[in-house]
Structure formats: structure tokens, C-alpha cells
Amino acid sequence: MVRPHVAEPRENIASLRLTANEREEMEFTSQALGFKSLSDYIRHLHKVAVAPEKKRVAKLNGKTYGPLIEVHKTDLGKIYQGDSLEYLHHKVKPGSVNLIMTSPPFGLVRKKSYGNEDAAEYCEWFRPFAEGFHRVLKDDGSLVIDIGGAWKSGSPTRSLYHFKLLVMLCEEYGFHLAQEHYWWNPAKLPSPAEWVNVRRVRVKDAINCVWWLSKTPFPKASNKRVLAPYSDSMKGLLKNGYTAKLRPSGHDISDKFSKDNGGSVPPNLLAIANTESNGVYQEYCRANGIDIHPARFPALLPEYFIRFLTDPGDLVVDPFGGSCVTGMVAEALGRKWACIELSSEYIRGGIGRFQGDVAAIGRGRPALYSINTPCSQPVDEAAVPLMANGGATR
Ligand SMILES: C[S@@+](CC[C@H](N)C(=O)[O-])C[C@H]1O[C@@H](n2cnc3c(N)ncnc32)[C@H](O)[C@@H]1O
């Protein structure tokens, strides 16, 4: 950015006390925005601060969302720093987004007591996003929300907040529940330990809900884009043929069953271990002293929905961008994209995802997970009484 011409010489020096982190962040952002120096950047911030309100911040229903700063750009996408409400309500054209793929912060609920009030508060907090999502989505577009459940504080019972959110989105904002999915993380540790390992009155909570919503009942989609490998028994059937017959259930299994469709239709249970700890992103963060985002989803989650629900060239938006996994995957799959994130620290890490070759999504070979059948161990019930008080005491 060119240094603005001033009549008076700049002879005054002001010293500014910053932490090492603040300084690094400010220098990073000022360079990313093309300023020649920190001084130019600070002068610019001052100008923005004193500019007339209507130019500085956008308003919707009396609410302001602050400036959006474009901090990184590729051929296909952009990372913005700022509040995504600004993007959703003012930046992007209505009806222009094919897929919103996101994972909103659930910490809002986790930190609190997790009761009904918090669930209601979460829904209230979400309302302007819901409006914005509806505004920007194309009629055949999809909204995919990955959201983890929460335990009520001090109680072995669950918050309803993510179900309430789903009901609100459908009943008040007119979204359709195209299909709920569940992301099973086989690597998730048993938690909370008190209910699962100590009092033994609950089982491992190993899934996140993934609400796939749409503006109309017919969002564009094809499950042929996300096929899974056939099971060994299906491969055998395809090889050796199948005799058409009526199943005991009454289902007529015709000879169409033995047609090779290139793979099997996956279930709505997505088995994806969230174990990546040494990928390019982590290495970049460690090398540059950047905090690693603590709540990332694995690349395969956005990959599944992007392939399933969009075509190359379509626009994919992640309004809670975090470490920009969605952007990276969209870039690799040839989709246009935008990630919006409040935290400059997470954005600094996210930019690292675009330093190398983004074309290959690092996933390795397809993984096969098995879930062991419960009730498969012999138990002497007399020796293992149920917790008579439901685990109210240890
Ligand atoms: C669960 S994390 C998303 C993680 C991301 N999916 C990933 O894999 O890295 C939610 C993110 O939303 C960001 N966030 C919260 N409110 C926001 C807002 N109004 N605008 C933009 N980002 C926001 C938080 O800073 C946080 O990084």
C-alpha cells in the first residue's frame, strides 16, 4: 500500500507497548494487507476508526458487525478476518452460495451449565447466522453443520441444544432436514470419565451430529460421487453372481443386486478418525510458533459433503473458518471458496495450509473401521448389579 502523501514532515515519534505476540500478529496482518510498515498500518487503522460510521461498519437491524479484512487469496478462494455476519449479510450476493460447510463454536454451551437456558441462548446467538445462511444459499444449495453434543454440568444427562438448533432452523427459518449424518470418531476417548469409567452408567460418546439442511427439498446431490469400497462379501457376489430370490424379510432381491456400480452407497454414519497430529498444518504452526486450532474437523468431512453436494466451480463457504480446512479441501477439489474467521491466530495457521501443494488432500489409503458388537462378552449378571441409584453416588 502506498504511503499517503502529507504536507508536514513526519517527525513525531510515538512508542507503542506490545507483547511479542501482539507485535508478531500486527506485523503479519499489516504485511498480508500490503502495508509497507507497521506505522502505515496503524495510520490506516486510525483512519478507519474515525471514518463516518456508515462507511466503517455495516448495520443490519441496528446491529453492527465490523470490518472484514481479506488476508489471503488464492485463484479460487479467500480467507477473511472478521465477523462472518458481515460476510453473510453484506458481502456476498443473496442466492450465490452452493454449500455452507461449517462447524460452529460449541464452547458457548460447554463452558456454561448446559441447561435449557443455555440451549435457548445458543439458539438466540445463532439466529442472525441462520438468517444469513438462508439469504446467501442458492435454492438448490446445502447447509451442513457439524455440531457436537454436550453433557449437562454435574449430571449424566445431555443438553438438547443441538436438537433445539435443528428444530429452530427447520421450523423458524424454513430449512429442510435433507438428512442427518453422524460423524463417528473411532479415536475419541471415553468421556466424561466420571460417568463412563468411574460410575459406569453411560457409554462412550463417540459421534458428532452433522445436520445436512437445504433451502428446498431437492438440493443438488449425487451419492455416486461418494461411493465406498464394496465389502468382501459384495465383491464375492459380483464375481460369482447372485441368484435372485425372496428374502425372509419379504424383500425381493432381484438380479440388479449383482450389478457393479463402482462401489457401495455409504451410510449416514461417517467413520473418520480425527487423529492427524503431524500433518503439514501442524508442522507449519509449530515451525512458526502459532497456536494449533483445538477444534479442527478432519479434511475428509468437508471432502465428503463438497463432493456429494457441489460441482467444480461452485462456491463453498465456511463462516466459522477456524484453521481453514474447508477452504483447503475446496481449493484441492476445484471449488471456489471463502473462509471467515474471527481469530488472527487461527488464520495465521490456516494460511500455512496453502504454502505447499494443496492439490492432493493428504488422506492416505481408505480406512476400514469395525465396531465390536456389544453384549459379546459373557457376564455373570448376579456379580454385576446395576447401579441401584443410577450412579447418583460413587
Ligand atoms: C469449531 S471452530 C471451527 C474449526 C474449523 N472447522 C477447523 O477445522 O479448523 C469454530 C471457529 O469459529 C470462529 N468464530 C466464532 N464466531 C465467529 C464469527 N462470528 N465469525 C467468524 N468466525 C467465528 C472461532 O474463532 C472458531 O475458530
In short:
This protein is an alpha/beta fold. The protein has helices at 20-32, 38-50, 53-56, 84-91, 107-110, 116-136, 161-171, 193-198, 232-240, 280-287, 300-309, 325-332, 344-352; strands spanning 59-60, 63-64, 69-73, 77-81, 97-102, 137-147, 176-184, 207-214, 245-246, 252-253, 269-271, 315-318, 336-341.
The CATH homologous superfamily of the largest domain corresponds to Vaccinia Virus protein VP39
Number of strands: 13
- The fraction of residues in strands falls at 15-25%
Query: Main sheet, how many strands, which sense, barrel?
Result: 9 strands, mixed
Low-confidence stretches: 52-59
Work out the radius of gyration.
25 Å
CATH level 1 name of the largest domain: Alpha Beta
Spatial separation of the terminal alpha carbons: 65 Å
Helical stretch tally: 13
Domain DNA methylase N-4/N-6: 97-348
Keywords: DNA-binding, Methyltransferase, Restriction system, S-adenosyl-L-methionine, Transferase
GO biological process, one term: methylation
Family: Belongs to the N(4)/N(6)-methyltransferase family. N(4) subfamily.
Give the tags:
binds S-adenosylmethionine, Arc Repressor Mutant, EC 2.1.1.-, Rossmann fold, DNA binding, 394 residues, 9-stranded mixed β-sheet, globular, N-methyltransferase activity, two-stranded antiparallel sheet, 3 domains, alpha/beta, restriction system, 31% helix
Structural features, described:
The chain contains 13 helices and 13 strands. The chain has 394 residues and is an alpha/beta fold. It folds into three domains: 15-56, Arc Repressor Mutant; 68-228 and 265-360, Vaccinia Virus protein VP39 (Rossmann fold, 3-Layer(aba) Sandwich); 229-264, no CATH class. The longest helix has 21 residues, at 116-136. The protein is globular, with a radius of gyration of 25 Å. The protein starts with 19 loop residues before the first helix and ends in a 42-residue tail after the last helix. The structure holds S-adenosylmethionine. S-adenosylmethionine is lined by residues 83-85, 103, 105, 293, 295-297, 320, 322-323, 325, 340-343, 346.
